[in-house]
Each structure stands twice: as structure tokens, then as C-alpha cells.
Amino acid sequence: MADFVGAIDQGTTSTRFMIFDHDGRERGRCQLEHEQIMPKAGWVEHSPVEIWERTSAVVRNAINAAGLVASDFAACGITNQRETTVVWNKRTGRPYHNAIVWQDTRTDRIASALERAGHGELIRSRAGLPPATYFSAGKIQWILENVPGARDDAESGDALFGNTDSWVLWHLTGGTRGGVHVTDVTNASRTMLMDLETLDWDDELLGLFGIPRSMLPTIRSSSLAEGYGRADEHGPLGGQVPLTAILGDQQAATVGQVCFDVGEAKNTYGTGNFLLLNTGREIIRSEQGLLTTVAYRFGDQDPVYALEGSIAVTGSAVQWLCDQLGIISGAAQSEQLARQVEDNGGMYFVPAFSGLFAPYWRSDARGAIVGLSRYNTRAHLARATLEAICYQSRDVVDAMAADSGVSLEILKVDGGVTANDLCMQIQADVLGVPVSRPVVAETTALGAAYAAGLAVGFWGSTDELRANWHEDRRWVPKWDDQQRAEGHAGWRKAVTRTLDWVEV
């Protein structure tokens, strides 16, 4: 009998395979990092070949380490870094270029030109997204315009596009030996190319970017009983495990946090921060700089939509303190250093390394540290970095309340940064509401597993999944209203200092 469900979690800095039992408990994992390639300022790339090699390795290693075989798995789900763009040749399997990562800003001129030409409203209306460097369409256009042979192959039908979910699935199902070219509605909703109402590629949007429809994967639901194709018998899953779920990472975390009711929200703290609010069957068009996106679609049920606030740089700002400045030896030390001071000492750090995402959408912004005096130390900078994570989330929560009319009563959190107790306390203080972390903090992989298991009846309903959710820790606010208001006012003032830095 199959007692487990697997989840491939292809993230921005690493790929992992996780194994879960019926109670949603982790029973095994393997995780490997991949290289962050930064050839120019503002450019961020990954090697698609390395990503597939890492994916194959973590699946094999985790299954072997757990003493399991493929027949022990009822199903497997895939979740992935969204918007990161791969274009490859379907005959050779070779990418035309490194994957262009969601953080990459090389397409700022493409996005700005669309806005200047008056196409911004069409993109917002159809796709629920503003023209921005964040999304896939501009990255595809850049590859077609700048890589020799890519445009001709795209026109002839030999070049394929996918976010990393499609790239991984294509390989899992055979690659050049007949790999399936599919994505799900959540990933498709992050391209600027899908109509939110029809859940299909939009020819008018494709025309704006000059993208042939033949490049694009078929859009399917996020969870399918029949699956997306048979696993290759020579691949890491041995041709036996049904591939029954695909979800973009933040939508997967929404499922993992069991945010199935309208008004429920979660915030994932990773390389960036991503706060999603379930809006049910209703498509809410944001007027506050948020994104309208598909939260999930299970089988042939109606799609469930969400408002999302995407923040580009949060956990990666902590990594910057380590890798670029060398003031800490690892992410865990940021908390130890920040605890040496009671507050930020008047210093604010706005980590707009890739411009500002929600709710500002300013690609002309760049990072700034303001309010410095001789009094400030590296401990104040560490504290200001943690506060930046929390203030950016506060901006999104405020925008979400204005758009939806829903006032947050509690914030469910997950992701690596939630291991930082000080950061989570600051988050509760800045928001003025409790912050709750579940026992299983790896909710992205868990959500992919849940969607895969639901498809095959491993779990019978979302009610069964709710019963698996348990709180690990809760932080309650300690700041008073005046302290909260003054701190946020200083942050907003600091944000203004980052604007109009780059000409786009």
C-alpha cells in the first residue's frame, strides 16, 4: 500500500524533495543548492541544466535515504519558483540561455515601454498584473530578441517556454523522448499572458510581446486525478509515481497553510516575501498595487483566486549581510547580532536591489540605508534589515485591507526566516496582530503534496487537511500604537529616498 506522497520543491536558491505521510508529517528530505549567476548589475540567472540535475539527485537521494521505493508513493506534486523563465529546444533539450530569474531587472525597458504605449491597463485587466520586470513575458521577449536562433526556432515550433515547473515536468516525463509540455493555472497566471477569466493564453497579450503561441505549455488545473503524464521509467521516479499536482510556490504555501476560506491569508518568508489573501471565486482587481492571481484549481472545480503582495528582497537582504558585507557568518547570526540593540537607532534599510515590488512597483528604485549617524553599529544594520522585512509586509497588509475590506486578525507565516524569533516578534509589533507559525514550516512542499494527494484520494477532502494543521508558536504585539505609527512613518519616509535612482 502507498503510504506516502512526495513533493518536488524547485526554489530560487535550492531544490528539495520532501516525503510526507497521511498526517502531513515530514518523513524524509534531500535538498541541494544551485548557483546564483549574476553576470551584470540587476541580472540574475540560473542554469536550467543544473536545476534538472539537482532535481533528479534530490529525488533519488531522499527516497533511498528513507529506505523507500517508488511503489511506496501514492502521488507526487511539483512546486516551483514562479516567473523564472526557461526557453529550450524540444529536439535537443538544450536551453537557449540561462534561466532568467524572477528577480532579474533587465527587462525594465520592455515593461516601461508597454506602460508608456498605453498597454498597461489591458495587461492589468486581462492578466491581473502590472507591466513589470517580475513576470515571465518580458523575459521570453528578451530571449527571443537577444539569443541568435531563438526567434526562428520559436516561429517554427522548436522552441519551448516554461517556468521551472514545466522544465522539470518535461524532463520527468521523458524530455526529448516525448516529454509533456504542461503548466498549471497558478504558474500561467504569473506570465502576463493568461486571461484570468478564460484561464487560457490571450492572443492580444501574446501579440504585445511578440510571443508565438506554439512556445507555450498547455494550461491545466493545479491538481488532476489523471495526472500530467507518465513519469519516465529511466527517471528518478522510476515510471511508477503519478504526477498529479503543480502549483507555483506561493500558491502551494497557501494550500499548505490550509487557507481555503475567503479572507484567510498567509505570508511566506523566503528569498522574498509573498502574502496571499484568498478571495474565493471572485476576481478582485487591485487598486492598491497588489496582484490578482489564481490561488489554485482542483480538478474541474471552479478556480479560487487571491490577492497577492509580492516583495522582492527580504531573506536575500539577510544573505547580503553575509555574502556581500561579511558582517555575519550566516543567516542565523542576524538575530544574535540584532538582539544587541533595543531598536534601529534611527537607521532604516530599504533593500530595493531589484526595484520595489508591491505595493509600489517602482523599477527605478534602488537600495538605500538612511538615517545614519556615528552612533550606528553593525547591530543596528542587522536590526534594520529584519525591520525592513516586516515593514515591507506591513505595506502589503495595508494595501490588502484597502482592496478587500478585510482587516487581518492573525497572520499565518512560513518559510526559512520564520526561524528568526526576533524577526517574527518585530512582525507582530509592526502589524499590531498576532503572528502564527505552524508545526510544519515547509508549507510550500507540503501544499504540493496535499494537492497531489487530494487528486488520488490519499486525502479525502480539504477538511482532512485542516485537521493536520497545528500551531507551533505565536507572537503577540508588544509595541503601543504610537511606537507602531512612528516606526512606520520613518519607514515610509525612507522608501521615498530610494525612488528615481535608475532611468527606465
Write a concise keyword list for the protein shown above.
504 residues, alpha/beta, seven-stranded mixed sheet, 21% strand, globular
Write up this protein.
With 504 residues, the protein is of the alpha/beta class. The protein is built from 16 helices and 22 strands. A seven-stranded mixed β-sheet has the order 16-17-15-14-20-21-22. Strands 3-2-1-5-13 form a five-stranded mixed β-sheet, with helices on both faces. The chain has a two-stranded antiparallel sheet with strand order 4-7. A hairpin with a 5-residue loop joins strand 2 and strand 3. Helix 1 packs across helix 6, helix 10 runs antiparallel to helix 12 and helix 12 packs across helix 13. The longest helix has 27 residues. The model has no long low-confidence stretch (mean pLDDT 93).
Q: Give me the number of helical elements.
A: 16
Q: What is the number of E strands?
A: 22
Give me the Rg, rounded. 22 Å
As a percent range, the share of strand residues is: 15-25%
Could you list the spans in which at least 5 consecutive residues all have pLDDT below 50? none
Shape: globular
Q: What can be said about the biggest beta sheet?
A: 7 strands, mixed
The end-to-end distance, rounded to whole angstroms, is 58 Å
Helix percentage range: 25-40%
SS class: alpha/beta
* Largest beta sheet: strand ordering: 16-17-15-14-20-21-22
| Mean pLDDT across residues | 93
How would you summarize what this structure contains?
The protein has 16 helices and 22 strands. It is an alpha/beta fold and 504 residues long. The protein starts with a strand and ends in an 8-residue tail after the last helix.
